Amino acid sequence: MSKGNRAGIDLETRKLKSPERRPSEAAIRWERDTLTPSLEKSPERRNSFTSLSGAPVERLYTPADLAEFDYARDLADPGEFPFTRGIHRTMYRGRTWTMRQFAGFGTPEDTNRRLHYLLKQGQTGLSIAFDLPTLMGYDSDHPLAEGEVGKCGVAVSSLADMETLLAGLPLEQVTTSMTINSPAAMIWAMYLVAGQKNGADWKKISGTTQNDILKEYIAQKEYIFPPRPSMRLVVDTITFGAREVPRWNPISISGYHIREAGSTAVQELAFTLRDGIEYVEWVVRTGMDVDEFAPRLSFFFNAHNDLFEEIAKYRAARKIWARVMRERFGAENPRSWLCRFHTQTAGCSLTAQQPYNNVIRTTIQALAAVLGGTQSLHTNSLDEAWALPTEQAVTLALRTQQVLAHETGLVNTVDPLAGSYFVEKLTLDTERACYEYFDKIDALGGMVAAIERGYPQKEIHDAAYAYQQAVERGERIIVGVNEFVSEEKHPIEILVIDENVARRQLQKLADLRESRDNARVQSALAALASAAGTEQNLMPYILESVRAYATVGEMCDVLRGVFGTYEEPAFR
Amino acid sequence: MADRRIRVLVAKPGLDGHDRGAKIIARALRDAGMEVIYTGLRQTPEAIVTAALQEDVDAIGISILSGAHNTIVPRITELMRAQGLAGVLLLVGGIIPDEDIASLKKAGVNEVFQPGASTQEIIDYIRSHVRRATATETK
């Protein structure tokens, strides 16, 4: 094992290793005597073949591609460092992945009903989507919320909404994932207080807050405050969680949105893991030991259409993260080395045209996630290029996972593609390309500095534009969009959120502002404001504000006053 | 006015931050020789119309994916009329269900581009529909 260095591990030795192929005598003979005459008779369809991300793919992979490959170093058995084959020894033979469909729309009552429905259908974890006003730290009655309340997720402005949202759900038994970023600390505090009121013990509850602000600046753009104070909020939740809510995953470091913004598979992986490095560096700087919080860091990846590229990405992710944690950060607890991740099939791959085709795409993407060893999975519904899914559509998406888990034999053996010349070579290439991005970002001074200069944003935009051009030139075929187009429409039912949702939310919020103890709200918010100006952990102040029924908008306004707000500069 | 290039304002109203589409359109229009002003995220209808007026644009392209179009777009068309911008082409792109297209057009939208529309279609549409007065000046 080579020594760790700042830029990344094994990098020096990896660079020295030439990725060039050294064909064997037999291979040379095969090319000359068999292949060449055959190509003369029937040439290949194209001069070169590439992955969905544009990486070259060779005609054939052979042992020559794996000349440097070493089982113990590059793979090892499942559950062993560097975990390329999986984080668990028995993988899905022990327990299948958690089937976790993302749900949220309308009022807290609407979403509560959907969550109960999904549990009844055999879903094994919960995942909550919030509406845009909530994601941006505005209450439902803010002028900018008009037209957006309950549209892209559930509207949650205060603890009262959270109590309704979680009513009757067994919080100590199910794990709950919440997709919330800029106001993650506030929404998590609402979950914790609502749980506590229901008698759930903070030491026992488990779940995940997405809370990954870096990818917001990079890709999804749902930021409120500038990067540095936002990082401080993330650090506060991680350290608070490590001490008070030990089974909670305080962050889900996400490549999903990076990919949706148009990145390549390698960019998704590299920017996500480099974000992870940034969070670890920031938390370690507070004086917390890496092994105290690293076991609860979790990840979230996309599953796109190119089956093998995706599988290689997940395998490389585990291998790189294990090395980063052990060698770059000196983590000693093996749990700190594990890249545990959730996967969602690629929303951006869904087409509005011929929506039933989306079921097929989603199935293959889910297959990639499972062959890649995911811990949990969301499968998109066929109608999601148009709207949030109907109950019927989401049920079919869940059934897709259940068929994969129970009918196909996929789960019977661990990492079934290991040893494939192609998959192992792709895994090595993905790893190498990822370390090259780490080098570039380290040279820019880290991820926060790179974001401030627009580096990852520009890399992704260039990849997205190149992809769009390839589609328009017909070099990339999208069935039903630029090829195999049919005039015939296949109308599907679409979920419509009516404006009554907003009306009901506004009424509830008006009642709350009247009935709560406003003196307590004001003093809690004043305490939050003054703590924000110091280096204290803000979680206790946020929890007290939540208990007083201060709203997400009120808490975010306090922090807007102290931290300021962020607008992305125009990067050229 | 000699040889004026077509000027387009690309705008993203509402709270949604998914700007992949808006930025690809902006770049494609630029590559097609148009002058493009991109407003950035979360612009109010007022800010969009003011920018259109100040920048003296021939067309406005609005990107909305969040489902808020029925609230936001009619406000933009109303402000455009109030500011004397009725002759400026207004295009909406994004996740717009079929059944909303008629009402958006009635409100004053010239064309709606749904998912899967190519940048070339949009370029062609702008070139052939941009205000005749401006177009003839450039000839």
SSE inventory with pairings:
The complex is a heterodimer of chains A (572) and B (139).
Chain A: H1 11-16, H2 25-41, E1 49-50, E2 56-57, H3 71-75, E3 98-99, E4 102-103, H4 108-120, E5 126-129, H5 132-135, H6 159-165, E6 176-179, H7 184-197, E7 207-209, H8 214-220, H9 227-244, E8 248-249, E9 251-254, H10 256-260, H11 265-285, H12 290-293, E10 297-303, H13 307-328, E11 341-345, H14 357-371, E12 376-378, H15 391-407, H16 421-443, H17 447-452, H18 455-472, H19 500-515, H20 518-532, H21 539-547, H22 552-563
Parallel strand pairs in A: 3-12, 4-5, 5-6, 6-7, 7-8, 9-10, 10-11, 11-12
Antiparallel strand pairs in A: 1-2
Helix pairs in contact in A: 4-6, 7-21, 11-13, 11-16, 13-14, 13-16, 14-15, 20-21, 20-22
Chain B: E1 7-11, H1 20-31, E2 35-38, H2 45-55, E3 59-64, H3 69-82, E4 89-94, H4 98-107, E5 111-113, H5 119-129, H6 132-138
Parallel strand pairs in B: 1-2, 1-3, 3-4, 4-5
Helix pairs in contact in B: 1-5, 2-3, 3-4
Observed structural traits:
heterodimer, A: 572 residues, alpha/beta, 5-stranded parallel sheet, 22 helices, 48% helix, B: alpha/beta, Rossmann fold, 47% helix, globular, disordered C terminus
Q: In words, what does this structure look like?
A:
The complex is a heterodimer of chains A (572) and B (139). With 572 residues, chain A is of the alpha/beta class. Chain A folds into 2 domains: 89-406 and 413-472, Methylmalonyl-CoA mutase (TIM Barrel, Alpha-Beta Barrel), CATH 3.20.20.240; 516-563, no CATH class. Chain A has helices spanning 11-16, 25-41, 71-75, 108-120, 132-135, 159-165, 184-197, 214-220, 227-244, 256-260, 265-285, 290-293, 307-328, 357-371, 391-407, 421-443, 447-452, 455-472, 500-515, 518-532, 539-547, 552-563, and strands spanning 49-50, 56-57, 98-99, 102-103, 126-129, 176-179, 207-209, 248-249, 251-254, 297-303, 341-345, 376-378. In chain A, the strands form 3 sheets. Chain A has a 5-stranded parallel sheet. Chain A has a 5-stranded parallel sheet with strand order 4-5-6-7-8, covered by helices on one side. In chain A, a hairpin with a 5-residue loop joins strand 1 (49-50) and strand 2 (56-57). The longest helix of chain A has 23 residues, at 421-443. The model of chain A is unreliable at 1-18 (pLDDT under 50). Chain B has a single domain (7-131), classed as Cobalamin-binding domain (Rossmann fold), CATH 3.40.50. Chain B is built from 6 helices and 5 strands. Chain B has a 5-stranded parallel sheet with strand order 2-1-3-4-5, sandwiched between helices. In chain B, strand 1 (7-11), helix 1 and strand 2 (35-38) form a beta-alpha-beta unit. The interface between A and B is large, with 41 and 30 residues.
